[in-house]
Give the backbone structure.
Amino acid sequence: MKFYSTNRQSALASVREAVLRGMPDDGGLYMPERIPRLGKGFFESLRRMSLPEIGVVAGREFFSPEIPESRLEDMFVEALDFPVPLREVAAGLYALELFHGPTLAFKDVGARVMARLMGYFAADLERELTVLAATSGDTGSAVAHAFYGVTGIQVAVLYPSGQISRLQEQQIATLDGNIIPLEMEGTFDDCQRLVKEAFLDGELRRRCSLTSANSINIARWLPQSFYYFFAKGQLDPQDGSLAVSVPSGNLGNVTAGLLARAMGLAVDWFVVSVNSNRAAAEYLESGEYLPRPSLRTVSNAMDVGDPSNIARLMDLYGGRLDRMRDHIAAFGFGDEETLGAVASVYRDTGYVMDPHGAVGYLGLKRWRGERPEIERGIFLETAHPAKFREDVERATGMEVEIPERLAACLDKPKRAMRLPAKFSALKEFLLERSRDSW
Ligand SMILES: *Cc1c(COP(=O)(O)O)cnc(C)c1O
């Protein structure tokens, strides 16, 4: 499979090129040149398949033969070694819990697969590969942990100073070895802009072998489609219309779901559920895309004013809004409503949601209110409630226990390097660092 750029100015890329570069030269995003349709037999046997097995069938369409199928299988088995349960919260209402990985965030799924795909290609490079990752909270820790100890790859994680939770910061800033935590004096959008700028800088690219680990990299983006198939397999096979609501920020997750749909997965509706950062929802409503500065919310991993995967969304539908609206709905919710949902769902069902999952829940609820014919709904639960403990405890009045692996990083010393949100500062630091490693 080859990959083209959504901006159509760069040449087609092989899997290897797309994975190692992360982003085409023309500033677009890579898309598969053809969307494979999976066979009827696959959908009929979903029920009996594990997540890694599903990954092999869906993933080989994109990655094989460049990566042999047996290697893909090893990678997926290793990367996807935690449960992804579908929990029934109320009749016909399900939460797909994507947060049982090592950093308790859904980004573990994509990041762990990506680390292995990238490690596969990095093995025969002559120089160390530098992964640049901007994070608004969860990406950084998932990526840092996924790559920790992978030889031939170092990872610089840029996070906005003072704008992520202490737990999130400790998960990133206490790592060492091949992980470089960078505390940036700016917003997440600044971090993301700096990463983009770095990729467009010829000198940096030449001297540091840069690549990305954000949801724009196909190695992270494509594997996020696997669990939509898996979720469907866990439902009763009885017919019945289905809506899937995805709490969204950069839109990587929901566009991966839409890709699964394009590959043949029967989902009637996708709901793009966002917080007060509504650029994507406004686009689906008005047809006009207006990026904005990001606003801080309680679902901070979704605080994205200019979602990068909007380009993939548009590309998947050839920019046709009417076709998007056929099966995509989008809504935004404020913090008060979000925490209100955490409280009411706990009170009514005993289920504890984190603020991100709660936004997903609200989107689903709204859409089912407008379309009563929808029989079943799944919302994605993207973070463990313990990662947003204060808010969840305040909303529910119950105590949230911190899982052992999360608590462990709280006492470790912070090792982050603090930098102004200026490209010149980042560039100097990276060049210095690559000089050291020679
Ligand atoms: C990153 C993240 C999201 C948003 O996912 P996108 O792919 O950026 O839309 C939602 N919830 C949590 C907990 C996240 O970390």
